[in-house]
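pasting for ref
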Amino acid sequence: MSVKKSIVLTALLPAAETEQRIFEMGASTMKAYDLSVIEFYAPWDTAKRRGDFLKSHGLCGVYLAATYQKRNHSHLCSLGNKERKSAVEDAKYCIDAASDAQVKSILFTSGRRPNDPAQYQSAYSVLVDSFSELMEYAPKTMDVVLEPGDRDVDAMQLVGPTELAIRFANDIRKEYPNFFLTMDTSHIAQLGENALTALRKASCVCHHVHLANCILQRANPLYGDKHPLFSCMNGVYDDEELHAVYDNLVVMFRQQRKDLTIAVEVISRNGGEFGWMDEVIKGSPWFFSKIIDEE
């Protein structure tokens, strides 16, 4: 088994999404800190170039289709047939881009929940149909992962609470074993759940975790799914707590003899073309300097 470290690069360096130079410099910096996985979004026609760079430098990639979904209001659980079909077609274009980039996995979200809770089960059934179609389309060598989000804070995702996410993953994995969950500590907090409890429950269908912070005070401008610095004031977590989550995850997955990728996700909101990269690296030396042995 192995534990790999990752960075959500195009959150930390937003310019890396459109500028190859920034992407390459950011990815190279992360490799120097023993990170081996780079998570990114890039427009479909530029994804291959990003992937070529990663492959030539011995790095793995995760294509963040969720970024496209969020910006384009593309909801795979939509009860509107036209909207759902459009979301599935968009997702297939993302899979094509991920294939061109030769990444190890592609990350999606479920889409926004219906306003009426009475429609949640119908939306769930639609989501099963959407992902079944995507799993048939995606290469069997590529992992397709779903990242659960909050229900009532910011993204308003159908999936959603950890128990529901596990149920959904098990439903899809009956036929498609290359489907997994990506759990996010920020989203877990927004769902009102305990991070370690949720991660322990989901470990049976999860091999990828985002370490991320959030603020849940409504008056705060960073309220919701903004992924602030681990050191931010009024955050649900601090750096020490996320370090503890990291250490517990390593032990948990090694005991289960399962592979795991652990990523840091911070969204830069200023700081020039290299955002908060230096601050994030210096703020969490336990992540950006520690070498994890493979067994």
